[in-house]
Design goal:
single chain; 163 residues; alpha+beta; alkaloid metabolism; Plant_def-hormone_signal; signaling receptor activity; protein phosphatase inhibitor activity; Bet_v_I/MLP
Length: 163
Amino acid sequence: MEGSLSMKLEVNASASETWKAYGSLLLPKIIMDTFPDKYSELKVVKGDGHSGTIVEVFFAPDVPGPKWYREEYTVVDDVKRFKLATILKGGVLEQGFKSYVTRLEAIEKEGKKDACIITGTVDYVLEDESGLQVVSGAVEAFYQILKAVADYVIKHQNTTSTN
């Protein structure tokens, strides 16, 4: 069973400023700092935040389910402000998913240079329908991450550094 869920979030910051967070290793750092009750550690296995980077994310001890996942940033395009990340091992792959791919894109808002739209999409393949109950939780967590990073960008506009 395949599916795709998309969400959009308006950010009161330019697309280029917003991309500094979403398109770099600052993204997982913001996640770790914002959700210490959900995530305990991030390891960069390979790379510098661009295409080919592999990270391992470990969940906090009290979080039920898988304890970690490995993710690869398969595409990071700083010109188009587009990121594609694939879960390689662990996480939702231990909860009935055959694949789980996230897409992020920062799109300039027409007529507003200090605003953009972040689109987040989750493309997934489930082993069977029993994994459907996990989908809503995984997508909600993805939305909370998008929102937290947007809040960070708004708070730190013009001071965000990459990597």
